[in-house]
Design goal:
There is one protein chain. The protein is built from 9 helices and 5 strands. It is elongated and about 60 Å long. The protein starts with 28 loop residues before the first helix and ends with a helix. The chain folds into 2 domains: 3-161, P-loop containing nucleotide triphosphate hydrolases (Rossmann fold), CATH 3.40.50.300; 167-231, Helicase, Ruva Protein, domain 3, CATH 1.10.8. Helix 6 crosses helix 7 (187-196) and helix 8 (201-218) crosses helix 9. The chain is α/β, with parallel strands linked by helices. It has a 5-stranded parallel β-sheet, with helices on both faces. It is 42% helix and 11% strand. The longest helix is centred in the C-terminal third of the chain and has 18 residues, at 201-218.
Length: 233
C-alpha cells in the first residue's frame, strides 16, 4: 500500500463531535494539551493513552488526526477493532506520514505477526520522527504482550490514564454538545438526563441527539415532561 493511499485521515466524516473543542477534558486537560501540541517541534513523539470503554480514547485520536489535517499534516487513524482481522500490511510505509493514531491496540496483542509488524513499524516511525498515538483499554504493562521488544517499545513515550468524568463534568459535556447543536438545554433537564439516563457517556449523548430531533419535529422546547414523553420514560 503506497503512502499516497494512506493520506485519508479518518474512516468517518469530520464531525464536530470528534474535535478537541467537542471534548470536555475534566481531569484529562494535561493529556489534551500534549495531544494538541504533539506536532510542534517540541511535541512528544509517542503518546500512549488508556482507559475504559467510553472514556474518550477514540474521540481524542480522531480529534488529533483532524487537527493535524487542518494544519496541513498527513495523518492516519487506524481502528484495530475494525482492521485487526486483516494481516498487518497496513503498517507498511507509515513513516511517510506525519501522525499515526492506532486505536484498540488490545485487539491484536498476542498475535505474533501483528506484534512483530508493530515492533518494526515503531522503529521506522521513531527514525523518521513521525508522531504516534496509541490507545488501548489497559496500560502498557497490563497488556499480555508476547514479544518483549514490543513491550519495551510501548513504554517509550508518555503514558496517560484517561480519568473518568465526574457528574459535574458530565453535565458540562451535555451543555457543550447542546450548545454545539444550537439546542436550548435547561439546567433542570440536563440534571434529569444525568440522573435518569445511562452512565455511559456515548449513550447519554445519543439520547441528546434523539431529543434534538424530537424537539425539532414537535417544535417544542425541552422540558422534563417532554423528555419523558420523547424517551418513553
Amino acid at each position: 500500500m503506497s503512502p499516497d493511499t494512506l493520506q485519508l485521515p479518518l474512516g468517518v466524516g469530520a464531525r464536530d463531535d470528534v474535535t478537541f473543542a467537542g471534548f470536555w477534558p475534566g481531569a484529562n486537560a494535561g493529556l489534551v494539551t500534549h495531544l494538541r501540541h504533539q506536532l510542534d517541534d517540541s511535541g512528544e513523539q509517542f503518546i500512549y493513552l488508556w482507559g475504559a470503554s467510553g472514556s474518550g480514547r477514540t474521540h481524542l485520536l480522531q480529534a488529533a488526526c483532524l487537527e493535524a489535517s487542518d494544519r496541513g499534516a498527513r495523518a492516519l487513524y487506524l481502528p484495530l477493532n475494525d482492521l485487526g482481522h486483516f494481516p498487518p500490511h497496513m503498517l507498511e510505509d507509515l513513516e511517510a506520514l506525519d501522525l499515526i493514531a492506532i486505536d484498540d491496540l488490545e485487539r491484536v496483542i498476542g498475535r505474533r505477526r501483528w506484534e512483530e509488524a508493530l515492533f518494526h513499524c515503531f522503529n521506522r516511525l521513531r527514525d523518521a520522527n513521525c508522531r504516534l498515538i496509541i490507545a488501548a483499554q489497559a496500560s502498557p504493562r497490563a497488556l499480555p504482550v508476547a514479544l518483549p521488544d514490543l513491550a519495551s517499545r510501548l513504554g517509550w513515550g508518555m503514558t496517560f490514564h484517561l480519568q473518568p468524568l465526574s457528574d459535574e463534568d458530565r453535565l458540562e459535556v451535555l451543555r457543550l454538545r447542546a450548545h454545539q447543536r444550537g439546542m436550548q438545554l435547561p439546567d433542570e433537564v440536563a440534571r434529569y438526563l444525568l440522573h435518569r439516563g445511562p452512565r455511559r457517556l456515548g449513550d447519554m449523548l445519543a439520547l441528546l441527539t434523539r431529543l434534538d430531533s424530537a424537539s425539532l419535529s414537535a417544535q417544542r422546547r425541552l422540558t422534563i415532561p417532554f423528555v419523558k414523553q420523547a424517551l418513553d420514560w
